Amino acid sequence: MRICGIELKANEAILVILEGETFKHIEIPTRKILLGNSDKSEDVSKFKTSIEDFFTENKITKTVIKKRAKKGKFAGGPDTFKMEALIQIVVNLEVTLVSPQALAAMEKKHTVEIPVTLNKYQHVAYLCGIYGIKSLS
User: Which of 5, 6, 35, 62 is the right S-S partner for 94, CB 3.0 to 4.6 Å?
Assistant: First the structure.
């Protein structure tokens, strides 16, 4: 089984694919999918099509997204919530939202080794993927 860990930041979905219980990172050329101008329906539709194609091409059936605060100092921007909604309505995709606190607790409980093949900006998405695999076992 393949799981996609996702972190939503500003207008981009940062993606990491993991396979199996060994947390094998699958190297792929697509590491981010951008939402252009969220006020334009063409850009929103393009993001939806791109993310659906990404899941289909990479045989993803489960994804884990890092939650963002809805209000307060660390609240997520409106584009991140729009991207989250578009991901949640993808057909045949199980979507789980995980809090930053749950990710931190998992990291403390289990030794997590980040692959050197990942860029720094992909680390949180990788942790989301690991959380998804661990929640299945």
Answer: 62
5: tokens are 């860990």
Which residue reads 């792929």 in tokens? Answer: 28
Task: Identify the bridge partners of residue 4 per DSSP, sorted by sequence position.
Answer: 17, 63
Q: What is the pLDDT along the chain (137 residues), one digit of tens a residue?
A: 899 999 999 999 999 999 987 788 999 999 999 999 999 999 999 999 999 999 999 999 999 999 987 877 777 788 999 999 999 999 999 999 999 999 999 988 888 889 998 999 999 999 999 999 888 66
Measure CA of the first residue to CA of the last residue in the chain; give whole Å: 12
Cα separation, 55 vs 71, whole angstroms? 30
Is the distance from CB of 71 to CB of 17 less than 8 angstroms?
no
Check if the beta carbon of residue 13 is closer than 8 Å to that of residue 87.
yes
CA of residue 32 relative to chain centroid, distance? 10
